[in-house]
Amino acid sequence: MELRQDTQEESISPSPAIVESSAQPVTTETPPVEQIVKELSNRNKDIRAGAEKQLAALGPESTDELLRVLEIEGQKYRRHRRNTRKGLYIGGGILVLYLSGGIILGLTTGHWDMMTNLGSFGVFGGAGAAAALTPQHKSIVKVISELDDMRSVGWLADTLDTQDKEIMTTAEDTLTRLLPQLQREDAAYLDNERRRMLDRKLVKTDRADFALAILLTYERLGDSRSLASVEIVESGRAVLKQSEIVHAAQAAAAALRVRQALEHEVQTLLRPSSTPVEEAEILLRPAGGATHEPESALLRPAMTDTDD
Fold first, then answer.
1. Do residues 208 and 240 touch, judged by C-beta distance below 8 A?
2. Structure letter (DSSP) for residue 118
3. Does the model's pTM come out above 0.85?
4. Contact, 70 vs 149, CB < 8 A?
5. CA–CA separation, 305 and 301 (whole Å)
6. Contact indicator for 182, 221 with CB cutoff of 8 Å
7. Are 120 and 53 in contact (CB under 8 A)?
8. Percentage of the chain surpassing pLDDT 90?
9. Cβ–Cβ under 8 Å, residues 154 and 194
10. CA distance 139 to 131
């Protein structure tokens, strides 16, 4: 009996390895940043939302990969926007030609049938909204906006014309914080296209904090091409007319006018005072005054060979 009991006890007692493994806490490894970023393109919005939270929790660790993908998405968006504008210009030209032909036909023949088909051109009205952000692009903008990285300024400025109000507000909020912090070495993040985007927003925005951020940036780092938009605000013709905004516009306009004068001075100094005359076209005439010799008989200066 004792032998049987001992055998039974040994059979039911767990091994030390099992006891040790069961005592250890279960840990889950965080997937690589690249894998999480890929989930931002998932069609399931819940999966995208989960990836956004994971990336936000990682903080600066995810910044480089986010900026890499943001650049890819941003370039695609910019190309799409340019193509959309080209389509609008072409469509507008076709519409003008169609209207002209319809009017001429109506006046000459009395038939205005062409004018009744104008509804077919309504497709051009909706073409402006064709340049839309992808789900991945939107998710990256949401996450990167919480990291306050200066390298994101340009890509955020690109989204200011989006039809997505949430993304536009997110971009405006982040730029309001980051633009006044830009240093001279950061100015390259705002190329000509992005500065023109800020020009348009400056005139149309109803957000005083955003307008002030743009004006303070222009006062320090603006170019003369923004002067026209700043002068609209300065003269009280923009949406915002508060004295604080107008005073900031006056300071920015003064700085931009100085830069404009310096640019003009540099261009004037670099421009030749007269059109240079080819050496071969110079004719040598006698020092005594006028001569009646034909030009074909006059001497020309010897051409020096610089290679010798």
1. yes
2. G
3. no
4. no
5. 13
6. yes
7. no
8. 54
9. yes
10. 17
